[in-house]
Design goal:
- With 288 residues, this protein is of the alpha+beta class.
- The protein is 35% helix and 26% strand.
- 38% of the residues are buried.
- The mean pLDDT is 92.
């Protein structure tokens, strides 16, 4: 299955963030130039791994580090594949950049079958959420309102992408390739929001979500996520991807809470090999 990081839409988004994008034989290679020390080369969930192309790009952009996160179909979790990566100078990182474990719902099921996997708290949240209006946001002005509400809803220590990133995300995933939703209380104030992107007809990906104190109390986040699932079915996508849950191979305890919430929707856990890195420039000094 094609990963969203390998779509033209995602390539356009990374380009808007300052990355140089090389698309070779259907694979996205992302290069970030850094002052003085060279560049970083990032390849995320490719359908195939071409070590010759990686080496050529390392020389072209004076890459000092390669970040490679294999897809399930490109590198299977086996000793031989692991050894192949080691043979090419890669090593398994202790901190993956992409979620190494995720949860996916099969959207080819009927709506009734999908709902059978929901736990009671999710059903309650969806039922309560029907009393809170849900609106979509798409224009720069609407996204600014969305962004301001996001900042007001979370603690200062929580990461909130800059407004320009949200605008660029919407531009890169236009029309029915992205969905920005927000739930509102009786007075019309935003109490929660979610962002989804679509990967062709393969998947709908849960990108971001936020919730105010009022939103958490009313459990409206369940209703917002449910709208993303319904949108995925409407777009004839195969899966809904929650884009990350807790992985005890790379433990991050801050992920435990929202992982329990995501698991309340049912679905199937998917495990990825992790992240492999290589200090390229040091290994190629003699060739540059």
């Amino acid at each position: 299955m094609v990963d969203i990081r390998q779509t033209l839409q995602y390539a356009n988004y990374l380009s808007s963030l300052g990355w140089t994008v090389e698309r070779i034989d259907g694979v996205n290679y992302f290069v970030r130039k850094l002052p003085l020390i060279g560049s970083i080369l990032k390849i995320q969930r490719p359908e195939k791994i071409d070590f010759d192309t990686i080496d050529k790009l390392c020389l072209k952009y004076r890459v000092f580090q390669v970040i490679l996160e294999p897809n399930l179909t490109s590198i299977v979790e086996s000793t031989s594949d692991h050894n192949l990566l080691l043979h090419h100078g890669f090593k398994l990182s202790k901190s993956p950049y992409l979620p190494s474990r995720t949860l996916q719902i099969d959207l080819t099921q009927s709506q009734k079958e999908i709902e059978k996997g929901f736990m009671r708290n999710i059903r309650t949240g969806i039922r309560r959420g029907k009393t809170f209006p849900i609106k979509s946001y798409s224009t720069p002005q609407e996204l600014e309102t969305f962004h301001n509400s996001w900042k007001k809803s979370v603690k200062l220590t929580r990461f909130v992408p800059p407004l320009i990133d949200l605008i660029n995300l919407r531009k890169s995933f236009p029309d029915n390739y992205s969905l920005f939703l927000a739930s509102h209380n009786i007075s019309g104030r935003i109490i929660g929001g979610v962002i989804f992107t679509r990967c062709l007809h393969e998947s709908v990906n849960y990108v971001y979500g936020f919730m105010s104190k009022e939103g958490r109390t009313s459990l409206t986040h369940a209703s917002l996520l449910y709208q993303g699932i319904l949108w995925g079915k409407k777009m004839n996508c195969k899966i809904f991807d929650f884009e990350g849950i807790y992985d005890d191979r790379f433990p991050n305890k801050s992920w435990l809470g929202f992982s329990r919430f995501k698991k309340s929707f049912g679905g199937t856990e998917v495990l990825y090999p992790g992240c492999y890195t290589k200090l390229s420039l040091l290994n190629n000094l003699g060739q540059i």
